[in-house]
Amino acid sequence: MGKLILENTSEIFRPSARTERTPASVTRDILKVIDTPGMISFAGGLPDDSLFPIQDLKNIFETSISKKGARLFQYADTQGHSELRAWIANRYYPGSSAEEILLTSGSQQALDLLSRYFIEEGSPILLERPSYLGAIQVFSSYAPSFIGINYGEEGPDMEELKYVLATSSEKPKFFYCIPDFQNPSSYSYSLEIRNSISKLLLENGIPILEDTAYRELYFEEELPISLCELGPEHTISIGTFSKTLAPGLRIGWIKAPKKILKDLIVQKQSMDLHSPTLNQELVYGFVSSSKYEKHLSLIRKTYQKKSGHTFDCLQKYFRNTISLKISKGGLFYWLEFPQEIDTDLLFRKCLEKGLAAVPGSSFFVGKPETNHLRWNFSNASEEQTKLGIERLFEVYKEMTKV
Fold first, then answer.
1. Contact of 33 with 351, CB cutoff 8 Å
2. What angle do CA 221, 315, 38 make, to 5 degrees?
3. For 22, phi and psi rounded to 5 degrees?
4. Could you tell me if 240 and 251 are in contact, meaning their C-beta atoms sit under 8 angstroms apart?
5. What is the pLDDT of residues 145-188, one digit of tens each?
6. Cα 157 to Cα 162: distance, rounded to the nearest angstrom
7. Quick one: how far is CA 123 from the chain centroid?
């Protein structure tokens, strides 16, 4: 009997509105082209994979298997590895406990869980302009009403935030922010802004979702107190080991009050039951050892050197034609070009030259700014960085007739 062939399969496969609302990730799409011969990519927020402590993780794996055996391959508690949760609570949230920590499959799952918890269609949410495009992607699938607050070198524009709170017809569900070496801008909140924003949002009864993905990647001195430490009663903190250990392990966390965490655990159960047990064991085995602090010191020194080299190359070629300040931490430079430069066009021309970076328009909700480019400095070698910036400047010259 012959098979029935349909001309139009759209009559069978009818996606939900959420599928239609979720934008593709620009960086994920760009990563598909990096294997093109001759292509140099500064697009993804990729750590330097030569720094992954592979031998140490291998040793931990072998030791754990010999001690725990089949338990590492069995179903496990949704909330996650109890000792790792206790370690996170003790290190990052003084005075908290393991019961306030939920382990997730990277911080991206943490964002999705919190979106499920807070956002209903049309819900107003606050976030920085620019903001992490992965968060924008997740939030978009839940159809909120975005309210962007401009982000400067010291933090969000407080007067703009006060005005928004005073004039909003509906109380925003939360304020999502990256106070430490923000992706994409690399800016960090001043202590004054941290205190002001925590106090203002508490007074207005608005939760803070603080993303701490880059907090450990400081180059010179530790950052001021986190928003979660300032206001644990109204702040939910998101963290990850992707930037300090290895992104492929996919271990992140949420720190939240116990009442909220209980609901988040139920949501995670419906998603994936629990994060990979073996990966949690590998992370705990490494971070709880004396090697973790040495590892953090190594990646900070390495990234500081790469940041400095990137800055020197940018200065050499661009001089005073673009605004430049040396990065104090994190993984990125946020390049600001003259207003007449459309970085979406610059991006396409760069691809033709064998160079990939992320156009700044991807990081804005509402009307985008189109004269920025996000440049990752952590993954490329010094030679690749020099060649990449040479190519960027060639395209820039063509567009400006410098």
1. yes
2. 100
3. -80, 115
4. yes
5. 999 999 999 999 999 999 999 999 999 999 999 999 999 999 99
6. 9
7. 22
Predicted confidence band at 61 (pLDDT cuts at 50, 70, 90)? very high
8 Å CB contact between 27 and 360:
no
Strand partners, 333: 375
pLDDT in tens, 344-370: 999 999 999 999 999 999 999 999 999
Contact 92, 244 (CB under 8 A): no
Strand partners, 336: 323, 372
For residues 228 and 101, the answer to whether their CB atoms sit within 8 Å is no
Query: Which residue do the tokens 């309210």 mark?
Result: 147
Query: For the residues 288-317, what does the mean pLDDT come to?
Result: 98
Strand partners, 332: 376
What is the β-pairing status of strands 155-156 and 175-177? unpaired
List beta partners, residue 188.
none
CB 246 within 8 A of CB 299: no
Token pair for 386 = 């020099």
Give the number of other Cβ atoms within 10 Å of residue 8's Cβ: 6
Contact status, residue 135 vs residue 127, Cβ threshold 8 Å: yes
pTM > 0.90: yes or no? yes
**pLDDT value at 2 more than 80:** no
Q: What tens digit of pLDDT does each residue of 135-152 get?
A: 999 999 999 999 999 999
According to the 3-state scheme, what is the secondary structure of the chain? CCCCCCCCHHHCCCCCHHHHHCCCCHHHHHHCCCCCCCCEECCCCCCCHHHCCHHHHHHHHHHHHHHHHHHHHCCCCCCCCHHHHHHHHHHHCCCCCHHHEEEECHHHHHHHHHHHHHCCCCCEEEEEECCCHHHHHHHHHCCCEEEEEEEECCEECHHHHHHHHHHCCCCCCCEEECCCCCCCCCCCCCHHHHHHHHHHHHHCCCCEEEECCCCCCECCCCCCCCHHHHCCCCEEEEEECCCCCCHHHCCEEEECCHHHHHHHHHHHHHHHCCCCHHHHHHHHHHHCCCHHHHHHHHHHHHHHHHHHHHHHHHHHHHCCCCECCCCCECCEEEEECCCCCCHHHHHHHHHHCCEECEEHHHHCCCCCCCCEEEEECCCCCHHHHHHHHHHHHHHHHHHHCC
For residue 221, the model assigns a pLDDT of 83
pLDDT tens digits for range 320-347: 899 888 999 999 999 999 999 999 999 9
